[in-house]
Amino acid sequence: MSTLVNRLARRALKIHERLLEFYGEPIWRNPLPAIDELVSTILSQNTNDINRDRGFNALRAKFGTWEEVRDAQTADVVNAIRPAGLANQKGPRIQQVLRSITEERGSLDLSFLEDLSVDEARAWLTRFNGVGPKTAAIVLCFSLNKPAFPVDTHIYRVTGRIGLRPEKMTVEQAHPYLESLFPPETYYAAHLNIIRLGREICQARRPRCEVCPIVKLCDYGRKINKQNVIARRVETQASKPDEAISTNHQT
Fold this sequence. Notes:
The structure is a single chain. Helix content is 65%, strand content 0%. The chain is built from 12 helices and no strands. It has helices spanning 3-23, 34-44, 49-62, 66-71, 74-80, 87-105, 118-125, 133-143, 153-162, 171-181, 187-200, 219-250. Helix 1 (3-23) packs across helix 11 (187-200) and helix 2 (34-44) runs antiparallel to helix 8. The termini are far apart.
């Protein structure tokens, strides 16, 4: 590693540790089988967790098995997942992924991925249209307990604002880059806690730096603090002539 990357890796670990102190050890929902997580993550694209779960639960309620989803009329799948949004795109995408997996493996059992390396499993998953680095990483991390670091919109924004990654780095590039900064054993907790930070404090339009637990480790936070210090100094200096005038008037 270069000196810069080493320095960023140390800061990434400090950020993870500080978020653990602030939020505690996060626990996500019970792990889903890999095929379930794959479908759920496709449904999560461009929507929130609530709508994703509504779409997923509706799909599971209408169809008893993933084989039934695969073989159903596309319109029926689309109608079932409407709560998740973009149903006309996600419905055919889910069915195509299920069909492609069946054609290659003969079934929808993805347990064989447990025996592959992270890179091999990631490469296999991302061969399918609609399965990008984030979707693959979520399946690997949360279903298969493999060291992968998913980068969603919150993590991409927050790590850029903090200064952990180059500003112009793409989301796709951020996956292997951030995996190189955080220790593998931190991926699960760091992923969930940074997302929580992004939702509750480091929001897109109005970051709440004044209550941020990692403000001293953040490039943007340090910049804001510096600006606030300068502004207070200017205000203090501007008030001094008035104080002098007031004192002279009293004498």
